[in-house]
Each structure stands twice: as structure tokens, then as C-alpha cells.
């Protein structure tokens, strides 16, 4: 579907999505949902806004009427970038997102900083902990390691128990 940028979903570690309408696209497969034809679903979508809101609110309690899709080839939660793709830092957000979407490749880093080089190594384990993640890695070359989360100022990182710098490599990744 043209309204959904699946590559930006992949980039942000999204493996599944739900929709009230059928969605088609490369690398998206239906996991569950009604056997609705696209024409029937689009007819449903043509109703007035208020009718759609009322109709959709009823679907919240009828999961059999909601489509669930799996998204293939999504980036991992934390990764050593296979490569760093450079975008122009003067671009507006729409231009930046378009570049990222067009050039998406699983586990790539995107930045406007020419001085950033990808680290290399192996993610040994990753586990959710309260308020974050515990990630064990083996590093073979120093550089950028990506946590696939929005870069907010409260994130902290520790290497062998010692605090280290975190910084956004773009508006999507830390």
C-alpha cells in the first residue's frame, strides 16, 4: 500500500502490523484476518469519517475482523551496521526519510556525520530489562554500534561497567 512506508517500519524493528483494511506490498504477508476482498474493504473505507470511527471502534473487540501482517527483513533491535549510508544533513525530515526508505538495507546505519564508521563484531545476547536492554557483544573493530530505538536523552550505555557516550546517529537510531 502506498500510504505505508514498509521500509521505515523495517528500519525501526517492526516485525508485525495490524490494519483495518487489507494491505499489499513486497515483503508483507498476511498472518490472520478476514477473508475480505480488497474491493469490499475499500467500499467500507469510503463511508463518512464518523461512520468509520464508529465501525473501527467496534473492531477493537472483534479481532477476527482485523488484519495482522508479518513484515520480512526488518532490522534487529541492536546491531553492528553492515555499512553507514550518508545523507545530507541540510535535508528536511521528508527528504531524509525518503532517502532512508529508498536506500533501506537490513541493519544499515544512516547518518549525516561523515566521521562515523561502523563497528564490527557479534551480538552475543540481548535481553529486555526494566527501562532498557542488556546487550552483550564481542567487538572486533571499534566504531558505531546501533540501538534501534528513538534517541532520547535518558539513554545510558555502559561498557564493562563504565559509562560511555551515547549519541543519535539519525532521528531514528541511537
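^ Assign residues to that structure.
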Amino acid at each position: 500500500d502506498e500510504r505505508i512506508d514498509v521500509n521505515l517500519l523495517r528500519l525501526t524493528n517492526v516485525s508485525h502490523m495490524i490494519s483495518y483494511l487489507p494491505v499489499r506490498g513486497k515483503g508483507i504477508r498476511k498472518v490472520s484476518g478476514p477473508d475480505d476482498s480488497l474491493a469490499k474493504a475499500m467500499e467500507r473505507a469510503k463511508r463518512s469519517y464518523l461512520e468509520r470511527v464508529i465501525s473501527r471502534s467496534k473492531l477493537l473487540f472483534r479481532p477476527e475482523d482485523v488484519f495482522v501482517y508479518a513484515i520480512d527483513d526488518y532490522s534487529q533491535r541492536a546491531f553492528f551496521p553492515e555499512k553507514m549510508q550518508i545523507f545530507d544533513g541540510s535535508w528536511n525530515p521528508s527528504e531524509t526519510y525518503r532517502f532512508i526508505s529508498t536506500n533501506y538495507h537490513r541493519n544499515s546505519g544512516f547518518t549525516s556525520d561523515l566521521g562515523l564508521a561502523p563497528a564490527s563484531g557479534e551480538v552475543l545476547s540481548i535481553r529486555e530489562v526494566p527501562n532498557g536492554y542488556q546487550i552483550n557483544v564481542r567487538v572486533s573493530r571499534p566504531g558505531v554500534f546501533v540501538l534501534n530505538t528513538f534517541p532520547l536523552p535518558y539513554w545510558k550505555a555502559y561498557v564493562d561497567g563504565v559509562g560511555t557516550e551515547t549519541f543519535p546517529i539519525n532521528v531514528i537510531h541511537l
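The CA atoms of residues 41 and 93 lie 32 Å apart.
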